[in-house]
């Protein structure tokens, strides 16, 4: 009986000594499994977002120079390396997407249209006169001196997007457009621009308008250029008033 009791005591003592080691080994195995899962998750994100920086399989040791490390320490080092690469890759992408596009020369050379009468859409029959007006005093924007232009100040901040009444905007036929404007800065796009002729159809007469978004500093940083599809369209010479030019560009806020 004493022998059985002695063996039991010895086994209990041995178990008490081994239990911490077994528990520690179990925790290590659990941590290794967790880090292996984390490494795979980060590796997959890195492969999807930045394949150019992925050089080896995530469980190869080439990213870890110290070969005295345990397998668990290697996994921890690999996880930290992959996370660092993913963070740096995302920072680089943010820098690329937030850097402004080079400002185009058209944006620098554009004429500012600032006249308040360009925002009259009610057919007020305003006749502002000026060097490019026709014999009746209506403004004319279809002349060679006006190439790229923008709306600013009292004229508004963009081209009118609803059909004006006849004899609005300081002219007879006011040009307007409800076409979608460019979303990418620095890229030239073409849209339709419409003349509000007195035939009751706001879109019966349309021409080509070139548009560039100059930046995202404001929602409406656009410049425009009238580019008629008909090569024979009458663009009046510089400073030469023409009875055939009742056309103006309307602005809005």
How would you characterize the overall build of this protein?
The chain has about 250 residues and is an alpha/beta fold. It folds into two domains: about 1-100; about 105-253, no CATH class. Helix content is about 30%, strand content about 15%. The protein is built from three helices and nine strands, in the order H-H-H-E-E-E-E-E-E-E-E-E. The protein has helices at about 1-50, 70-100, 105-110; strands at about 110-115, 150, 160, 175, 190-195, 205-215, 220-225, 245-250, 250. The protein has a five-stranded mixed β-sheet, with no helix packed on it. Strands 1-2 form a two-stranded parallel ribbon. Strand 6 (about 205-215) and strand 7 form a beta hairpin. Helix 1 (about 1-50) runs parallel beside helix 2. It is rod-shaped. The termini are far apart. The mean pLDDT is about 75.
Distinctive features:
alpha/beta, 253 residues, 3 helices, two-stranded parallel ribbon, 9 strands, 32% helix, 2 domains, 15% strand
**How far is the first residue's CA from the last residue's CA?**
103 Å
Domain module tally = 2
Question: Could you tell me the number of beta strands?
Answer: 9
Q: Sheet with the most strands?
A: 5 strands, mixed
Helix count equals 3
């Amino acid at each position: 009986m004493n022998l059985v009791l002695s063996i039991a005591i010895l086994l209990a003592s041995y178990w008490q000594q081994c239990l911490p080691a077994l528990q520690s080994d179990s925790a290590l195995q659990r941590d290794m499994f967790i880090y292996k899962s984390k490494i795979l998750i980060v590796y997959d994100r890195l492969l999807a977002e930045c394949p150019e920086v992925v050089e080896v399989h995530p469980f190869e040791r080439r990213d870890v120079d110290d070969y005295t490390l345990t397998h668990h320490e290697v996994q921890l080092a690999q996880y930290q390396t992959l996370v660092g690469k993913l963070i740096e890759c995302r920072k680089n992408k943010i820098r690329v997407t937030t850097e402004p596009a080079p400002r185009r020369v058209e944006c620098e050379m554009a004429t500012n249209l600032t006249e308040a009468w360009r925002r009259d859409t009610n057919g007020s029959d305003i006749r502002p006169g000026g060097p490019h007006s026709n014999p009746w005093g209506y403004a004319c924007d279809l002349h060679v001196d006006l190439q790229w232009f923008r709306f600013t100040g009292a004229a508004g901040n963009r081209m009118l997007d609803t059909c004006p009444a006849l004899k609005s905007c300081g002219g007879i036929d006011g040009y307007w457009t409800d076409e979608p404007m460019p979303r990418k800065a620095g890229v030239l796009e073409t849209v339709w621009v419409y003349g509000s002729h007195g035939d009751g159809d706001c879109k019966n007469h349309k021409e080509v308008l070139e548009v560039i978004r100059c930046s995202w500093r404001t929602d409406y940083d656009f410049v425009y250029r009238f580019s008629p599809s008909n090569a024979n369209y009458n663009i009046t010479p510089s400073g030469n008033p023409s009875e055939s030019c009742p056309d103006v560009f309307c602005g809005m806020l």
